Amino acid sequence: MYKKYAASELEKDYTIFEGVLKTEHPGLYWYAPADSVEYYFKAGRAQIKDSMTEVQFRYLLSYITAKIRCGHTTVRASRDYFNGRDSLRTHQFPLNLKLWPDTAMVTANLNRRDSNIQRGAFITAIDGLPIQQIVDSLFEFLSADGYNLTHKYQTLSNRGVFSSLYLSRFGYKPSFAVDFIDTLGNQRHAVLPIYKPIKDTSMRIGEFPPPPGRLTHKERKQLNIYAARSLRIDTALSTGFMDLNTFTRDAKLHNFFKKAFKQLDKNNIQNLVIDLRANGGGSVTNSNLLTKYIAQQKFKIADTLFAVSRHSPYGRYQETRFTNWLFLNLMTRKKKDGYYHFRYFEGKYFKPKKKFHFDGQVYILSGGNTFSAATLVMQSLRPQTNVTIVGEESGGGAYGNNAWLIPEVTLPHTGVRFRLPLFRLVIDKNEHKGYGVQPEIYSLPTSPAIRRLADFKMDTVIELIKNNKKSY
Q1: What DSSP line would sit under 141-202, residue for residue?
Q2: Closest-CA residue to 245 (of 268, 205, 276, 212)
Q3: 457: closest CA among 470, 445, 440?
Q4: CA separation (Å) from 330 to 70, 80, 125, 284, 403?
Q5: How far apart are alpha carbons 447 and 449 in whole angstroms?
Q6: Helix or strand (DSSP H, E) at 123
Q7: CB 130: neighbour CB atoms within 10 A?
Q8: Residue 140 banded pLDDT, cuts 50, 70, 90
Q9: What is the spatial distance between Cα 98 and Cα 116, in angstroms, rounded to a whole number?
Q10: Bigger pLDDT: 442 vs 470
Q11: Is 105's pLDDT higher than 90?
Q12: pLDDT for 305-337, tens place per residue?
């Protein structure tokens, strides 16, 4: 964690980082002109004046990637750092926050014995800096599709992100002066010590003993799969609630969808709620399959889909490079524009399924974590009269994104990794560029809902279903 790398090593890694992005990233100049991107590359290099820790170097690279405005281009810790994270007694900023425009609400105080700041309090300043100024500063280091801020607010609200990024940006301190409004509406001030988690493998006094026996590998795998996707049916509401937290291949969604839609058909269910709020994407085959069970007519997911290159001078730093090279050479063709197009998906229409097709009312829950392939589902189904998107703007771009094949690049000296999307996907060329899929019914965070742990988006959908039943 505290190892420092010489400036010469950092400069070599930075040169590779810059070279990879300039030669292979398909959307490097999608949201920023070339001279602007070049300015940030030069400014980043100018920051390497002395040695840096890995955290400091990652912080620098994250600032540069954020300027590309591509949500799939992100920086990750080295494997050594990642594997050693449990043994590092890393200090943390002591508060977890739920953030949305002009609001920062405490969801947890990690120093449990500290009763000064409780869940539901509003943070107005930290160490004299207004909270919105802090948030704006942290946004400079977060990648997102286009100009999307919903994704950035949600990312900072995800567990541990604000703490990690805040300390990287403003530095480690033994304590923090916090201005806040308590749950009674009083303006208050407190000094909070930094949180020091201690790894302790022994059982603490007063804790319950672990359950007898341990989960087998198979049982653990089944639990993970269930956490990734599930269906429950409320016969009183005639509603199925489908939680889909991923479209990755290991979630075994083909059989799940088949059984789920068969069960909905068997029980004559009239409403289906699909929760995509935590779905960061995955396999397009899986997202397309879900769409086929709901689509009322043929649909497409791509107007254009292309890579800028088939060959890379930096291939030795990329994972699965041979597989990706093989795919690019077998599945793409160079067109007059000079790009390598994956023509199978360009303009291709997919037919809806006939067996167990769902024809009832569909409600899709969306939020800042709804990304990538999950966005494709929403964008394809949104025009249907029986589909209603509820919640917030999706994190993934409605116009398109850079994705499809996303190898991980490892910089040789620091071991820092970053994700490199190889294809530019334009979902709908007529869509407004730079923002996510917009809901038809907005259901935004409110302080009372957060305080009482309410699922306000789900509450909105259930109210819609009940009102629809009354109108029958």
Answers
A1: T---STT--HHHHHHHHSTTHHHHHHHHHH---SEEEEEEE-TTS-EEEEEEEPB------S
A2: 276
A3: 445
A4: 26, 35, 55, 19, 18
A5: 5
A6: strand 122-126
A7: 13
A8: very high
A9: 18
A10: 442
A11: yes
A12: 999 999 889 999 999 889 999 999 999 999 999
Q: Fill in the DSSP letter of residue 250.
A: G
Amino acid (one-letter) located at 326: L
Q: Please report where in the chains the tokens 């070599």 appear, as a residue.
A: 12
Predicted pLDDT at 208:
44
Portion of the chain with pLDDT greater than 90, in percent = 76
CA–CA gap between residue 244 and residue 353 (Å, rounded)? 19
C-alpha–C-alpha distance, residues 63 and 137, integer Å: 10
Which of the 8 DSSP states describes residue 330? Answer: H
Report the greatest alpha carbon distance in the chain.
72
- Only one residue has tokens 């300390």, namely 167
pTM: 0.89
At residue 469, the pLDDT reads 66
Question: How do strand 239-244 and strand 271-275 relate by DSSP bridges?
Answer: parallel
CA 389 to each of CA 379, 383, 399, 455: distance values in angstroms, whole numbers, following the listed order: 10, 10, 17, 16
